[in-house]
Amino acid sequence: MRLEGKKVMAIIDEEFEDLELWYPVMRLREEGATVHFVGSEKDKTYIGKYGVPATSDYSYEEVSSKDYDGILVPGGWAPDKLRRYPEVLTFVKEMDKDEKPIGQICHAGWVLISAKILNGRKVTSTPGIRDDMENAGAEWFDEAVVVDGHIISSRRPPDLPPYAKAFADALAQ
């Protein structure tokens, strides 16, 4: 299992996009990675846009980015909430500084925008936030997945297979 010993934090809040959270999490776990759900509260069950639950293993205060090899930011409406937590922005900034894989899909680009790490980066997202991504200094592409160093971005649920593979590949390096 090529990801055995790797740890990933998946940050969650209400109304995450169900598939955009669970598909990459299952893919990483199948390859041996440990994935923890991290939210504003420990042991809280957050409900996805379509009703699929995810219960946080830890709260933001209980974890440190230095203890993880990568971070997943799901889309849906959760990113608009997630980007308001200073801890989340700190995790993203620290992962960026340490060049650890950062996975973002759909509206999750909002979190990276708020962390101010997109200037000069190549990315994709849901077309609905293309202007936001470009206004943050990113070069936007309409592709299923864009890999720019340690930042792996994707557009929407139909793009999940290449997105999850690209993130797993980055984590394996």
| Structural classification | alpha/beta
Spatial sequence of strands, sheet with the most strands: 5-2-1-6-7-11-10
Please give the radius of gyration in angstroms: 14 Å
List the helices and strands in order. EHEEEEEHHEHEHEEEH
Distance between the termini: 13 Å
Q: How would you sum up the major sheet?
A: 7 strands, mixed
In one word, what is the shape? Answer: globular
Q: Output the number of helix runs.
A: 6
Helix content: 25-40%
Low-confidence stretches: none
Strand percent estimate: 15-25%
How many strands in all? 11
Taking all residues together, what is the mean pLDDT? 98
Structure write-up:
It contains six helices and eleven strands. It has helices spanning 18-30, 78-82, 86-97, 109-114, 130-135, 160-172; strands at residues 7-11, 34-39, 45-47, 53-55, 58-59, 70-73, 102-105, 122-123, 139-140, 145-148, 151-154. It has a seven-stranded mixed β-sheet, sandwiched between helices. Helix 1 (18-30) crosses helix 6 (160-172). It is globular, with a radius of gyration of 14 Å. The mean pLDDT is 98.
